[in-house]
Amino acid sequence: MTMAVLEAKVYIVGAGPGDPELITLKGSRILRSADLVLYADSLVSEELVRSAKAGAEVLQSSGMDLEQQVEVMASYVRAGLSVARVHTGDPSMYGAILEQMSLLKLLGISCEIIPGVSSVFASAAALGAELTVPGLTQTVILTRAEGRTPVPDREQLRLLASHHCTVALFLSASLAGHATAEFLAAGWNPDTPVAVVKRATWPDQQILHTTVQNLEPDLHEAGITMHAMILAGWALDPQLIDGGGHRSKLYDKKFTHGCREGVAEAVIGSVDNTAVSEAGQAAPPQEAADGV
């Protein structure tokens, strides 16, 4: 396969949650073409990194501090070479990329961010869940429980959880007791569903269904202390898929949008009997970009 010729700069690549097939096409192309691949070795698949081109230097970042990482990346770019700085998931979520870009900018080194599939969405897929359910919740809050990294007072979990929407907790498996206390302080029902996905999309992926009140003991029993996404809220009720009662406006027969005219309720029964194609098959619905 012909390698692309990359500019001499740092490409911050989101590798996705774990499965090497979930990197984007652009991210894969850059990874295969870069002169230096610097990757988060504890979180990025070795199989993915093996696609680096012959002759590329491949370095692990786990043993480096920030200045060491920046120094090696800058040295390559100054030599007219390209760098793939490979992060897990999507770099914009808890990727610690701002500090890297800031120091690189001071050195006159340009960067480009290549987005990736975040673990929050990989976890939802693993669960077969929709995080925004019509009539139930239309909001998802992405946050973390407060640990060694402080959280601003205005962003304390109990304040965010007071909206009673879906909450996704990054980097919080070891802080489950605190998270439970915050949810309860926000008025959540102790039996509110919670789903935990450890190492989403990896071969050893682990899924746990629990509740707000049982989150900490169930995580302890399962031995889950890190590399886990916690998703909380009634959208995570595994029985929702059996109900069929939460429908969007998008495919409602009475709803008009840019691709389809709504049908008056009085004539819906008539439409049901005639909405077939000339071939005798049901006409496929038109997708719409908005109106959900």
TrEMBL record:
- What transmembrane ranges does the database entry give? none
Question: Keywords on this record?
Answer: Cobalamin biosynthesis, Methyltransferase, S-adenosyl-L-methionine, Transferase
Q: Which GO terms describe its molecular function?
A: precorrin-4 C11-methyltransferase activity
Q: Does the keyword Methyltransferase apply?
A: yes
Q: Which residues form the Tetrapyrrole methylase domain?
A: 9-215
Pathway, per record: Cofactor biosynthesis; adenosylcobalamin biosynthesis
Concerning Pfam families, the annotation shows: TP_methylase
InterPro entries on file: 4pyrrol_Mease, 4pyrrol_Methylase_sf, 4pyrrole_Mease_sub1, 4pyrrole_Mease_sub2, Cbl_synth_CobM/CibF, Siro_Cobalamin_biosynth, Uropor_MeTrfase_CS
Q: Which residues form the signal peptide?
A: none
Which PROSITE patterns does the entry mention?
A: SUMT_1 (PS00839)
> From what superkingdom does this record's organism come?
Bacteria
Gene Ontology terms describing biological process: cobalamin biosynthetic process; methylation
> What family does the Swiss-Prot or TrEMBL record give for this protein?
Belongs to the precorrin methyltransferase family.
The protein's name in its UniProt record: Precorrin-4 C(11)-methyltransferase
- Species: Paenibacillus donghaensis
